[in-house]
Amino acid sequence: MLCFEFIYILDPEIYTRYLKRGVYKYVPKVWLKKMKPKEVVNFTNEKGDVLGKGIGVFLENNEKTKEEYINGVIDGVEVFKSEQTGKILYDDIYIFNRKDRHYIREKTGLEIADGMEVLIYFLPYVLKELLYLCDEKLWNSEILMVSDGSNLPYKLIERLSKEVRFLTILEDKKENAQKNIDKIYNDTGLSIFYSQNVDKILMNYNIIINFKDNISVDTKKLRGKTIVFDLSVGQNFSEEINNINKSVITIEDFLFHWKDLIVEKDFFHTEELIPSYKYEVFNRYNIKDFKQLLVRNEKYTLEELVQTKIRNRIHI
Predict the structure, then answer these.
(1) Which CATH architecture is the domain 116-310 placed in?
(2) H/E element, 69
(3) How confident is the model over 55-86, as pLDDT tens digits?
């Protein structure tokens, strides 16, 4: 049996284009929609190793209910997964909340690639370089991290522990927070301040890293040119900020070089750079691959962001 690490639910546009190349070009679309999931392509590297499999499931976006999309993903994956498959790659990942992703994982035994491990790995580098370009040091910066109660914020703190001195964690579950704070202190020596009241401390920070889906804060109180990394599933925090406070820098994703990582490029992506969730399936963490940031849905290099958005910011 062919072994591969990820299954990619092909983008509907790519899948439709594939079908129209062959005999299916004569089949009415209404009939094509009734097709069962179809194997389309094996993704390989330059050595010929099979990295993943691309399957066709959906022909259009936004034509089904979320439940239908969930069941479609599950049905397609169950047919084609191998014993070595660990990830599901799906471009409309943001329609699935945490509960949906947990359900898919329970049914398939596979994780949906969400880019979180990639973001956690690269964020210390990105933040350090960003501040360096601003003639500032991460060591002197005060950071607020908003926890979702998972272990992810603390994994990031561990990666930041040798680079920062001043870090506050905001979390609803005090016992969970204190347990992790104590562990990090014992392991790294980093002392973390804990708070449950965001309104009282929000104005103190120019760097905020958010993991939580829903935060009850007055975004108008954020300081001008605050840098927000929104790593939450729904990214409601950055969306609210973008609508209300135009002076805040909301970083929503990192973008990566990928063209030499895969042979079947036409089936994988249509743009020069890929988002973090797609980069994740390569299990490759190379700083040279990092190229740009997604800020308010616009793409910037670190240098461009500093020159156009941050240069005249308040000192951190």
Answers:
(1) 3-Layer(aba) Sandwich (3.40)
(2) helix 66-80
(3) 999 998 778 899 999 999 999 999 999 999 99
Place of tokens 């401390």: 201
Q: Cβ distance 312 to 305 under 8 Å?
A: no
- Cα→Cα distances 3→36, 50, 77, 189, 260, Å: 22, 8, 14, 43, 21
| Contact of 222 with 199, CB cutoff 8 Å | no
Q: Are strands 111-112 and 87-90 parallel, antiparallel or unpaired?
A: parallel
**Rounded-to-integer distance, Cα 110 and Cα 78, Å:** 10
| Whole-number Å distance between alpha carbons of 274 and 255 | 5
> Domain-by-domain residue ranges, the chain?
6-112, 116-310
Return all residues near 224 (Cβ < 8 A) that are at least 6 apart.
247, 248, 313, 314
**Token digits of residue 67:** 């439940």
Query: In angstroms, rounded to a whole number, what is the distance separating the alpha carbons of residues 150 and 305?
Result: 30
DSSP letter, residue 188? H
Predicted confidence at residue 286, as pLDDT, reads 96
Three-state secondary-structure class, residue 247: coil
Write down the pLDDT at residue 2: 59
**Looking at residue 313, what is its pLDDT?**
52
Three-class SS of residue 270? coil
Question: Considering Cα of 99, then 105, then 111, then 112, what sign does the dihedral take?
Answer: negative
pLDDT in tens, 241-299: 888 888 899 999 999 999 999 999 999 998 999 999 999 999 999 999 999 999 999 99
Using N-to-C axis directions, what is the helix angle for 152-160 and 116-133, rounded to 10°? 40
How far apart, in whole angstroms, are the C-alpha atoms of residue 7 and residue 267?
12
